[in-house]
Amino acid sequence: MSSQAQPLGGPALGKVSKWILWLGIVGVVLILWRFGVGLGRSTGLNDGYPWGLWIAFDVVTGTALGCGGFAMALLVYIFNKGKYHPLVRPAILTSALGYSLAGLAIAIDVGKPWFIWRIPLGGFPDMGKYNWNSALLEVALCVMAYVIVLWIELSPAFFEKWKDSPKEGLANFSKKAYGIVNKLLIWIIALGVLLPTMHQSSLGSLMLLSGPRLHGLWNTPLLPLLFLMSCIVMGYAVVVMEAALSSRFFGRPSHKTMLADIGKVAAYISWAYLVIRFVELALRGRLGLMFQFNVYSLMFWIEIVCFAVPAVMLMSAQKRQDLGHLFRAAMLLIVAGTLYRFDTYLVAFMPGENFSYFPTVPEMFVTIGIVAIEILLYVALVTVFPILAGRPTTAEAH
Amino acid sequence: MAFDRRSLLKGMAGASAAAVASASPVKAARERKTVPEDARGMLYDTTLCIGCKACVRACKEANNLPADTSTPGMENFDAPTDLNEYTKNIIKLYREGDRRSYVKRQCMQCVDPACVGACMIGAFRKEKYGVITWDKDRCIGCRYCQMACPFNIPKFEWSSINPDIVKCEYCRQREGDKQWEPACCEVCPREAVIAGTYEELLTEARRRLETYPDRYEPKIYGEKDLGGTQVLYLSHVPFEKLGFEFDSEEPVPELQQTIQHGVYQGFIAPAALYAMLGVVMWRNRKKSGLPEEGGEA
Most B CBs within 10 Å: which of A1, A206, A208, as the mutation test of the B interface? Predict the structure, then answer.
């Protein structure tokens, strides 16, 4: 059976703007510079705000935006909605790239990236001493494993291309590997659901350790649940955004009806998220914090509005059929989830009045550069490998 | 229509119920930790400190710390304004109207330390005498310890390209000495800060509070705060004025670890979830005849 996904064809980077290439290059140069001068000179980080833009955006938000693969796997495999298949491969590609580059961001952010390999070993030479109390250890191990899982999930796209390769060795290997991956796929995909469930919720639990210094509107024992729900919403929103963009720029089928369904699921989860958030604040008697008219209450309401508006937008079955409408709602949900992460990790974190943080220009250009690299790799891979669906599927046709 | 509302709601309700159940704190809360039997600590008394900073200098010497010349206008002086990558111990002045007080800041040697709970592969450990140590060979430089410590103690070598964490370790390099005392306690001319076993210090603090009740705030900071610390404070001004703003007896890691342990106990829940996912998918695949391959269109 042959896949209906097809490469776009043409030169690998033929379809990207030079600007994106330059932003990527600037990013790489700045990353090298950061290792030359240390974190103090290259970033706005300090002892009060030891985590900044790179952690809050590239790692915490970046992996949540990389939850498209996770969210689609939930839908297609667990809820048995096989017809959404054409959206799966591109979603897994964005996830694989998002998580891999989040890994890169971690390597840039930590002080001694050359010792990262000691984490999976539990230290070295004194091995196996894991601190299982550490939510960060769980996140680190899960993310490392998940990056591998994602590339395995995506690997059929590579094997499909390579099995017709004129190089006999590569072709034979691809045929064999294709078969093996196929057999194991169920268990790999199950991992692809289990691992994000674990580490995306743990990204919420992480901040419980900053509890005494976290503003009351964000500090709740339900942080893991809220992080998990919002990352699934963001995953669906990214799938919608990406399908809309590929149809616009690459002329691929947009799978509108499927996107409308996905939008609906995202809306339901957003409502559940909002209800849980407000009920929890009410139960803990913290509703008053919303009306203090300070930066915290302001950020809180912006966040809430960014969740609620698209959730309302996506309730109308008729409007969901409009691709532009879907796209706008998805973008708002992405903003909402991003703000929630920025607020929890930076804005609501209160190390004391004598500390302040704002990212430096190089810090921002590293982040922009990483996003640029992600776009470059995405375009290159969909150009060369069969990832985007090539023609309308049966589901789309009726 | 792809999803009928009912199946969607059912699925979501099930999923969120499971999630809530797993995320809500389990009833069997984590046990409170107690002060180790061999615990050593410090007792600092604001009424005795004259702000001479002999302890700041002694600490630098004992720990081979470079001078901090980064304070603007003070480039010729070792003049740290706070704990930082060059400074493990500092004396600060609090002043408000006529009221003033010095306060010494260094690691509090928590009974249930957040940094130890945070650290991935145990660079931070609570060791002999309850002293919290940092191990260069187990640190990746992730700085979660800094995010976690409620007292803002661990500092990062921001200026280095191979940065370490800098933090008071109770002068553990002197442990073999006959009279093991941290340099700051040894040098203090007024005995404003003294070292000793936790028991001795707590008894002494109580004695002072009882003998001079009108001299002090009626509280020994660290006796119970945030689960207790091995460094104890007596003060003549309210403790929150000195930067001890947390009025809670709950150890920082308690809530997080209760939740994490609840969810991950024996790794049963994740393993069960994994098995369930696999079985559901296997059945679905058989039922619907989904294409074999994952990314198939």
Answer: A208
Which of B206, B254, B251, B229 has its CA nearest to residue B39?
Answer: B229
Query: How many C-beta neighbours within 10 Å does residue A108 have?
Result: 23
Write out the residue range of the structural domain in which residue A22 sits.
Answer: 17-49+361-377
Q: Cβ(A154)–Cβ(A97) under 8 Å?
A: no
Chain A interface includes B148 (CB < 8 A)? yes
Q: Which of residues 124-153 of A touch B (CB under 8 A)?
A: 124, 126, 129-138, 140, 153
Q: What's the pTM value of the predicted model, to 2 decimals?
A: 0.91
Q: Looking at the domain B40-251, which fold is it? A: Alpha-Beta Plaits (3.30.70)
Residues A30 and A116 in one domain: no
Comparing CB atoms, the residue among B8, B270, B278 nearest residue A186 is B278
Backbone angles phi, psi at B111, to 5 degrees: -70, -40
Among A39, A137, A276, beta carbon nearest to B121:
A137
pLDDT, tens digit, 9 for 90 and up, residues A1-39: 345 788 888 777 777 778 999 999 999 999 999 999 999
CB contact under 8 A, A138 and B155: no
Choose from A106, A112, A163, A353 for mutation: most chain B CBs within 10 A. Answer: A112
Counted domains in chain A: 2
Residues of B whose CB is below 8 A from A138: 260, 264
Report the pLDDT value the prediction gives residue A76, as an integer from 0 to 100.
83
Q: Do B121 and A119 touch (CB under 8 A)?
A: yes
pLDDT at B47 > cutoff 90: yes
Q: β-strand B193-197 against B40-45: which pairing, if any?
A: antiparallel
Q: In this structure, are A101 and A186 located in the same domain?
A: yes
| Interval B232-252 mean pLDDT | 93
Domain boundaries, chain B: 40-251, 252-291
What is the percent of chain B where pLDDT is above 90? 68
| Complex ipTM | 0.91
B144-167: pLDDT as tens digits: 999 999 999 999 999 999 999 999
Put simply, whether B295 touches A (Cβ < 8 Å) is yes
- 3-class secondary structure, B234: strand
| Residue A195, burial from CB neighbour count under 10 angstroms (0-12, 13-18, 19+) | buried
A186, A276, A381, best to mutate vs chain B, most B CBs in 10 Å: A186
For residue range B244-273, what is the model confidence (pLDDT) as tens digits?
988 899 999 999 999 988 888 888 888 998
The whole-number pLDDT of residue A2 equals 40
Q: Where are the beta strands (DSSP E) in chain B?
A: 40-45, 90-96, 99-105, 124-126, 132-134, 155-156, 165-166, 193-197, 231-234
Do residues A42 and A156 share a domain? no
